[in-house]
């Protein structure tokens, strides 16, 4: 078989074991994981295929495509298919978000070595602590991962408990069940259907680490139903200190031993606001709060004493997460910052394509000014982005400040920025499907910044020039120089304006009121640019009217003439026209004023991903959840 990925199972297993020996970090979870990519549940199908040779060939191709997708930095989920005359193969693979790319691939390879034992049948799956792989010769499980057409893999629900029990009091059982229930509730409300969280018992003796994850391309309803079943299984493990629940479409795990880093947690508080509403809960919160006041006072005094002694270390410690590159190495990789290496220009310098000594291609952002605003922006990007990994956010790989300029080393995006495809040299080349995926990806990246990282981050400068496109035409948000931390307890902060006019929300441009809804507004404008192929601040000079994009979009919406705004380069069929209308209306909801009626980015992600419910409801009856009302 040429270019075969499907090695004999014993050879695959030997390669995986060898890779673990040579690179032990890739075979473990990020923190003190007890797992070495050992399968914890697997099944082989029993329904015979028409042509075993064709099925094997297609399976090799599908698995190779899945692995290629997962090899992209920040990618945790992949779907691939190889369609044949008789026996097509549809595959999915998913890794936990606490893994590095190398660790994800190691888990995938280990799972493949297990599936190599499935020598017949039309499908199989394997679940490991760190990843999941499934393939079938039918497609309908793509949208609903619980679909099963093979009795050989029909029994999927399982709970696996550790054998060590905690010695805590009976109240600990309620603590554990409450924590797992919160994880169950929060996960379907996130953009990636993934949550990792840490909670310490009131005695302080036990800290639990827990994750939950649904197959990423499913719906919120299916995810919730799946996790409800998983929760019913995993809670039976209480009070054991380890527990797992395995369903066909989701996975839950908790442990008293860390298996991810403390800074890899999801902020789940906002997803639990509707849950903690009983009087008993309020009373408990008040009692705990009083006790916490004394603890906070003690901790704050301790931190104040330490603050001065640590002040001089602050700059270097903030930059430890990224690699400190040699200035000479970067200078050599960019041809001494030659003109032919320039791939972009910004307010404070150029961006260069660089090939490092290990043959990796990166982008180097050079800031010509070492002090003032440029230095602040440089520190912001390194501090914010070196610890964040998400498929729709550009990664900061390293930095250098030893030479005459400040340098940021970023992952390289071969297709450049989004504006190149909207009104640059590649204008008109994007299909509607590609444009929608870009809109969806930007929304997911912003939802992660606002709601799913352990702190809230507001970008402040979302625009088409700051959206980069990778080789798979997936968007990545870039340029975090103006980004700001934001407290969960503040509705907004007042700050000096910084951003790009035309994309900026009116309350921020006029009064300096900064909240996450500023990014929501900018997202709405960018989505309209993607739909129309027009700059937001260019008048519609090639048509009879003369309106800026946002005003033109609102007028078209109010007159039920949505398609008037759509890029003329798009040749849409009837179903695509209806889809564009829905997405345009979602974009307009993001630009509403006052700020309170704009949706959060998590809500936008739900609207984009659940068209069967939220979007149809929006278009059909103008529900109270989405009310379009243009205001200046």
Overview of the molecule:
The chain has 632 residues and is α+β, with helices and mostly antiparallel strands. It has five domains: 9-156, Gnk2 domain, C-X8-C-X2-C motif (Killer Toxin P4, Chain A, 2-Layer Sandwich); 171-277, Killer Toxin P4, Chain A; 282-318; 323-411, Phosphorylase Kinase, domain 1 (2-Layer Sandwich), CATH 3.30.200; 419-621, Orthogonal Bundle (Transferase(Phosphotransferase), domain 1). It has helices spanning 9-22, 52-70, 101-115, 171-186, 220-234, 279-310, 314-318, 327-333, 372-385, 419-422, 432-452, 506-511, 516-532, 549-558, 574-589, 601-609, 611-621, and strands at 39-44, 77-82, 89-95, 123-128, 131-136, 158-161, 194-200, 207-214, 242-246, 250-255, 323-324, 342-345, 350-355, 361-367, 396-400, 406-411, 456-458, 467-469, 475-477, 484-486, 493-494, 513-514. The strands form six sheets. The chain has a six-stranded mixed β-sheet, sandwiched between helices. A five-stranded antiparallel β-sheet has the order 1-4-5-3-2, with helices on one face. Strand 13 and strand 14 form a beta hairpin. Helix 11 (432-452) packs antiparallel against helix 16 (601-609). The model is unreliable at 1-35, 275-280, 308-320, 485-497 and 612-632 (pLDDT under 50).
């Amino acid at each position: 078989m040429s270019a075969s990925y499907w090695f004999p199972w014993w050879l695959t297993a030997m390669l995986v074991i060898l890779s673990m020996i040579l690179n032990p970090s890739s075979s473990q979870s990020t923190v003190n994981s007890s797992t070495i990519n050992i399968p914890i549940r697997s099944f082989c199908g029993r329904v015979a295929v028409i042509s075993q040779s064709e099925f094997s060939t297609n399976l090799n191709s599908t698995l190779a495509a899945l692995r290629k997708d997962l090899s992209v930095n920040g990618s945790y989920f992949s779907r691939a298919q190889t369609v044949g005359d008789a026996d097509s193969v549809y595959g999915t693979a998913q890794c936990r978000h606490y893994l590095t790319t190398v660790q994800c691939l190691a888990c995938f390879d280990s799972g493949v070595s297990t599936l190599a034992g499935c020598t017949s049948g039309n499908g199989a799956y394997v679940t490991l602590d760190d990843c999941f792989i499934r393939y079938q010769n039918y497609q309908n499980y793509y949208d609903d991962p619980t679909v099963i057409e093979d009795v050989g893999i029909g029994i999927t629900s399982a709970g696996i408990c550790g054998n060590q029990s905690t010695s805590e009091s009976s109240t600990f059982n309620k603590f554990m069940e409450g924590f797992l229930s919160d994880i169950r509730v929060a996960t379907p409300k996130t953009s990636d259907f993934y949550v990792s969280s840490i909670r310490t018992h009131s005695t302080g003796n036990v800290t639990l680490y827990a994750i939950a994850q649904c197959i990423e391309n499913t719906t919120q309803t299916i995810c919730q139903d799946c996790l409800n079943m998983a929760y019913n299984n995993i809670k039976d493990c209480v009070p054991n200190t380890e527990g797992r629940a395995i369903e066909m479409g989701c996975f839950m795990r908790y442990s008293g031993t860390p298996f991810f880093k403390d800074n890899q947690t999801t902020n789940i508080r906002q997803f639990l606001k509707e849950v903690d509403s009983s009087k008993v809960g309020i009373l408990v919160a008040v009692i705990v709060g009083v006790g916490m006041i004394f603890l906070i006072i003690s901790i704050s005094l301790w931190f104040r004493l330490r603050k001065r002694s640590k002040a001089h270390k602050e700059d270097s410690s903030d930059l430890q997460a990224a690699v400190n590159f040699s200035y000479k190495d970067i200078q050599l990789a960019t041809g001494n910052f030659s003109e032919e290496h320039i791939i972009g220009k910004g307010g404070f310098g150029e961006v260069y394509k660089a090939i490092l000594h290990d043959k990796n291609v990166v982008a180097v952002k050079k800031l010509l000014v070492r002090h003032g605003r440029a230095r602040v922006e440089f520190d912001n990007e390194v501090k914010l982005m070196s610890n964040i990994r998400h498929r729709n956010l550009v990664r900061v790989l390293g930095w250098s400040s030893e030479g005459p300029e400040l340098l940021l080393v970023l992952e390289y995006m071969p297709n450049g920025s989004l504006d190149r495809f909207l009104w640059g040299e590649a204008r008109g080349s994007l299909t509607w499907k590609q444009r929608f995926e870009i809109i969806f990806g930007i929304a997911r990246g912003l939802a992660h910044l606002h709601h799913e990282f352990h702190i809230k981050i507001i970008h402040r400068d979302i625009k088409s020039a700051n959206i980069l496109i990778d080789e798979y035409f997936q968007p990545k948000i870039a340029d975090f120089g103006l980004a700001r931390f934001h407290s969960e307890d503040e509705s907004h902060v007042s700050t000096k304006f910084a951003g790009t006019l035309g994309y900026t929300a009116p309350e921020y441009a006029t009064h300096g009121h900064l909240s996450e809804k500023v990014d929501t507004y900018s997202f709405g404008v960018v989505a309209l640019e993607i739909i129309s192929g027009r700059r937001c601040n260019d008048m519609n000079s090639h048509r009879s009217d003369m309106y800026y994009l946002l005003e033109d979009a609102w007028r078209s919406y109010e007159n039920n003439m949505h398609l008037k705004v759509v890029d003329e380069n798009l040749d849409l069929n009837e179903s695509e026209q209806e889809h564009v209308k829905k997405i345009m209306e979602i974009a307009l909801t993001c630009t509403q004023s006052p700020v309170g009626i704009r949706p959060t980015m998590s809500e936008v992600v739900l609207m984009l991903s659940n068209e069967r419910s939220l979007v149809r409801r929006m278009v059909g009856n103008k529900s109270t959840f989405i009310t379009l009302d243009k205001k200046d």
